[in-house]
Each structure stands twice: as structure tokens, then as C-alpha cells.
Amino acid sequence: MADTGRQSMTDKAAASMKPESQKSMTEQAGDKVKGMSDSVASTLQPQSEKSATQKAGDTVSGNSNEGQESLAEKAKHAMGMGGAEK
């Protein structure tokens, strides 16, 4: 279960497993908006108020907001599923 205002781990996994080339423009835009708002929520929520699941999810998805590519993004790129922006 996701913390209030956060994207669930299931939603994150589903969005990251489908290659960008198979997503509609609407899906791509929706994923980008959800990812950005989840990143903002991650930044604003103190670590002490996050559930253990959300802390783990932030680590995997790279929501530490330090400008580094997340583990999920690295895996997508390694499988040739990532976009051309990186």
C-alpha cells in the first residue's frame, strides 16, 4: 500500500515494464506526470514518516532526487526498453 499522495509499487512496476515504444502518447504523458508528482511527494515527505515499503520503493525507483538514474531505469536501459532521453 502506498503512503498518502504516493504512487503504489504495483503501479510503478506496471508502468516500468511496458516499453515506451508500445505506450500511447497518453500513457507516456500519464506516466511522466505520475512519476513527477510521486517524486515531489517523496521529497516533501520526511523519511521518518515513510513506511518501510515506501522507503524501499524510493530506493529502487531513485526518488532520492540526486539526479542519478534509478535502479529501475538502469534495468530498463540494459534491456533496451528505455527511452532515448538518457
The number of distinct β-strands equals 0
Low-confidence stretches: none
Radius of gyration: 13 Å
Major β-sheet profile: none
Strand content: under 5%
Separate helix tally: 4
Query: What would the principal axes of the Cα set say about the shape?
Result: globular
Structural class: mainly alpha
Helix fraction bin? 40-55%
Order of helices and strands: HHHH
What's the rounded overall pLDDT mean?
Answer: 77
The rounded distance between the terminal residues' Cα atoms is 30 Å
Region (Disordered): 1-86
Biased composition (Polar residues): 1-10, 39-68
Protein name: Heat shock protein 9/12-domain-containing protein
InterPro entries: HSP9_HSP12 (IPR007250)
Task: Give a verbal description of the structure.
The structure is a single chain. It is built from 4 helices and no strands. It starts with 8 loop residues before the first helix and ends in an 8-residue tail after the last helix. With 86 residues, the protein is mainly α. The longest helix is centred in the middle third of the chain and has 20 residues, at 25-44.
Keywords:
single chain; 86 residues; mainly alpha; 55% helix; 0% strand; globular; stress response; Heat shock protein 9/12-domain-containing protein; HSP9_HSP12
In a nutshell, what does this entry contain?
InterPro entries: HSP9_HSP12 (IPR007250). Helix content is 55%, strand content 0%.
List the helices and strands and how they pair.
Blueprint: H1 9-17, H2 25-44, H3 52-61, H4 71-78
